[in-house]
Amino acid sequence: MTDTTSNSLKILVYSDDRDVRKQVILALGRRPHPSLPEVEYIEVATEPAVRAQLDAGGLALAVLDGEAAPAGGLGVAKAVKDEVRDAPPIVVLIGRPQDAWLATWSRAEATVPHPLDPFELARTVVGLLRPVNVGA
Fold first, then answer.
1. Is the pLDDT confidence value at 96 over 90?
2. For a Cys staple, 49 with which of 44, 69, 86, 117, CB 3.0–4.6 Å?
3. Three-state SS for 63?
């Protein structure tokens, strides 16, 4: 679970492509919504790094690139939901609308299609983060 007493929310951004990670961070900015604290981004490029960050705890949300290789975000999301107790909400970036059913299988809370629409990504992330801060 996320520590809501801290001054920032930690968002994990996973992609083997640094440009995708940069797009996510630029789309969300330092404060995706006025009702939320500032965001601290943790960028990772490999599945083992995702697992290490999840094991460390304190994440409010994870954004996983479904097109990442060799471990795609949908498979990583499935493994996280199956194996990590109190996993944070997960948003998977999908390359094709037909992949939406895989997001259901992976138990990701939301999907956003590539190419990224910054407004859609922000709306999705804020919708998942705001319940964390109810009453804050």
1. no
2. 44
3. strand
